[in-house]
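Handoff note, outgoing to incoming analyst
You'll be picking up this chain. Sequence as last confirmed:
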Amino acid sequence: MASDKNTQEIRRRISHNKFRDHLFWVIGLFSTLIGFVVLFTLIIDLFVDGFPRLSWSFLTSYPSRFPEKAGILSAWVGTTLVMIVTAAAAVPLGIAAGIYLEEYGKKNWLTHVIEINMNNLAGIPSIIYGLLALGLFVYFLKLGESILTGGLTLGLLILPMVVISTRESIKAIPNSIREASYALGATKWQTVKDHILPYSMGGILTGMIIGLSRAIGETAPIITVGALTFVAFLPSSPMTNTFPFLSFKWLFDPFTVMPIQMFNWVSRPQKEFHLNAAAAGIILLLMTLVMNALAIYLRYKFRKRIKW
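Most recent structure output, in case you need it:
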């Protein structure tokens, strides 16, 4: 009898656990569908409002007080240049910091403090980074209200994300790979360069995608460091006719970005400017998708090379 009661109790618990699993699955699916439907509705509404305004002249015209003549040329060029500086500043530094903390740094109180602060920095509001950059880059380093300042500001914003994703990706690599490399006579750096980094590059690129996707839509820190709301000119060309045929003058030019241009149009009472803002939102969304697609392609190439 006792054995039969135990068997029934086990079956009852199994049935109860299965019911809870199915209930959790239904709740999770329902929550996912709600988020997807809301996002899909917002995107459709954005395209309905902004798609008729899209044209070649919209991409190649400067902002104007006349909505039918206004364009986003200076805004999308400024966004592109700022994101180049952001990636160049944050990605190498973040990957190097993650490698050091995970592979070279000793596990002591100092690295523990760095880890805690790095996790805290990832959750700080973006306006705080803008105030920090205003004091450091604009006033102390005298970089001015320039593309370089905007890119470094957003680089500071996404740096903790890149560091954390790099560390987590490296941490996921089995120790057996390191031990096999050392057994064959490889040095620490050879192990990291030839084995750890290639195997963890997929996760590192994922963190980079998340960070850059956040940076491209930020407004508060860019406004804080002095980005303009109305720019009717382009930065200096990076190419010159004289040796060395490269110019970095554009790094110190004034700029604006897509989110600021959209905010400027939305704040105006005319409906035509609101349609311009919707069209600019479509372009910003496409720029984000292109940037993410490039990173996903690079991640795919890394993983494919590892398989072979």
